[in-house]
Amino acid sequence: MGAADGERRVLSARGDNPFCGDELEVRAVVRRDPARGWVVQRAAFDGYACTLCLAASDALMEAVEGQPVALVRATTFDDVCCLLGGLEVGRTRKGCVELPLTVLGRALATVVE
C-alpha cells in the first residue's frame, strides 16, 4: 500500500520465506525527479530473518537509495549476490537472498513511470 503526498510516496510491502522462517517488511520513500522519473529516496526493512536474509536486505536497501525505480526493478538475484561480495548461494538458501528483492519489488510495483 502507498500513501501519496504530491510528488512523494511512501510505499511498503511484506513477505516471507516459509522454508527458512524469514519475515520482512520493506518501506520505501520515492519521489518524482523531472529528469530521472521516480527515484528511491529512502529504503528500509524490518522483520525477523536469518543472517543471510538480513545481510541481503541491508545491502540491497543501501544500494537502491538514490536509484531510479526502473533500475531497482531490474535488479536481479545475481546483483544482490554481488552486493554481498559475489556470494555463491545454494538453491536451499536462494529464497533467503531473494526475499528482500521480491518484497521491495512488490512495494515499488505501485509506482507507474
Describe this structure in words.
Helices cover 36% and strands 34% of the residues. It is of the alpha+beta class. Strands 1-2-3-4 form a 4-stranded antiparallel β-sheet. Helix 1 (51-64) runs parallel beside helix 4. The longest helix has 15 residues, at 94-108. The protein starts with a strand and ends in a 5-residue tail after the last helix.
| Strand composition percent | 25-35%
Count, helices:
4
- Overall helicity: 25-40%
Uncertain segments of ≥5 residues (pLDDT<50)?
1-6
Strand ordering within the main sheet: 1-2-3-4
Largest sheet: 4 strands, antiparallel
Mean pLDDT: 92
Radius of gyration: 14 Å
Q: Could you spell the SSE succession in H and E letters?
A: EEEEHHHH
Shape: globular
The secondary-structure class comes to alpha+beta
Distance between the termini: 17 Å
Give the total of beta strands: 4
